[in-house]
Amino acid sequence: MATDFLSMADVTHEELAWLLDTGRAYAARRTGGPQPLRGRIVAMLFEKPSLRTKVSFDVAVYEMGGHAVYLGGEEVGLDKREPVEDAARVLDRWASVIVARVMAHSTLERLAAAASAPVINALSDVEHPCQAAADLLTIRQRKGRVEGLKIAYIGDANNCARSLGLGALALGADFAAASPEGYAFSGADAARLRDAANGGSLTLTDDPDEAIDAADVIYTDVWTSMGQEAEAAERREAFEGFQVNENLVALANPGALVMHPMPVHYGEEMPPGMLEHPQSAAFDQAENRLHAQKAVLRLLVAGE
After folding, report:
1. What is the per-residue pLDDT for 104?
2. 8 Å CB contact between 193 and 7
3. Mean pLDDT across the chain
4. Which residue in 304, 297, 292 sits closest to 64, CA to CA?
5. Angle CA(143)–CA(127)–CA(3) in degrees, nearest 5?
6. CB under 8 Å to 70, separation ≥6 — which residues?
7. What's the rounded Cα separation, in Å, for the pair 60 and 58?
8. 126, 148, 187, 279: least buried by Cβ within 10 Å?
């Protein structure tokens, strides 16, 4: 059974299906139900700012009977004021779970190695599995299934794309990713994605039209992530033609979902107003961060 949630690869196909079933149950019932965090403390270490991740975890812990302690980057100063390992061992004395949003994925790995408490990846430069769990929950809610669907990712092959691809393929979906040269999945990433496939197929291309053809889900993310601001102008030029707009959406299957983890850089990966498109599921994705993360907490703490 999973002891940490640093990557979508940390859960089995069966555990991932359980997370979606449990998340759907939480979505149908905001209050009541199991409270595995009653009397427990959840430490939230955030080196990067957040809206959806911070609030959804805080609310999830509260509604599951626990208490969240939020620690910003400057408060802890990982590897500045004290080593990651020392911070992990101290938090281990008080907290039942450590939720960490970090600059480098290696920080998560060091936290997990030093702490006996479960560590949850609330975003790193490599993956964003909590976002992917909410995305897949949203797809299942809106489409009734994930298996057999075609999910098209358009844009930078970033942390959200990795986690989404790993989860979608594990659940039997076809995953197609279109990225410009220099911003695509590495050979190692492609190998990991192929290894995760559980009946679905992987398509990697530099042509958005090819990726989106016959797609049931269209997913995009910002072209310039936090920490990449110096590359913004270069990236805007490289990603020209990769905007998810009405013309591109028209190439997908009728009724294809339009998804984005937010926040949006309007005028870049999406034109203004696209989150209000009739096919947009972005605000459902945001809400489902709460329900999916409750399921993750329950899996790791209650051992279900």
Report:
1. 97
2. no
3. 95
4. 297
5. 90
6. 44, 46, 54, 58
7. 5
8. 187
Read off the pLDDT of residues 104-131 as tens digits, 9 standing for 90 and up.
999 999 999 999 999 999 999 999 999 9
> Quick check: is 60 in a domain?
yes
Question: Of all residues in the chain, what percent are helix, strand and coil, respectively (each to 5)?
Answer: 45, 15, 40
- 179 plus 86 within the same structural domain: no
Each residue of 268-300: pLDDT tens digit? Answer: 999 999 999 999 999 999 999 999 999 999 999
Helix, coil or strand: residue 258: strand
Alpha-helical (H) ranges within the chain are 13-28, 52-63, 73-76, 84-92, 105-114, 129-143, 159-170, 187-196, 208-212, 232-238, 246-249, 282-302
The predicted structure's pLDDT at residue 248: 96
Mean pLDDT confidence for 70-83: 92
Type and span of the H or E element at 80: none
Range of the domain at 22: 8-127+288-302
Do 137 and 261 belong to one domain? yes
Does residue 51 sit in the same domain as residue 168?
A: no
The residue behind tokens 């009653």 is 38
Residue 155: per-residue pLDDT:
98
User: Which residues have C-beta within 8 Å of that of residue 223, sequence separation ≥ 6?
Assistant: 155, 156, 232, 235, 236, 238, 239, 242, 265, 268, 269
Whichever domain contains 54, its CATH number is: 3.40.50.1370
61-70 burial, b if ≥16 CB within 10 A, otherwise e? Answer: bebbebebee
Task: Give this prediction's pTM.
Answer: 0.96
Same domain, 193 and 280: yes
- Burial code (b: 16+ CB inside 10 Å, e: under 16) for 134-155 equals bbbbbbbbebeebeebbbbbbb
According to DSSP, the residues that pair with 41 across neighbouring strands are 67
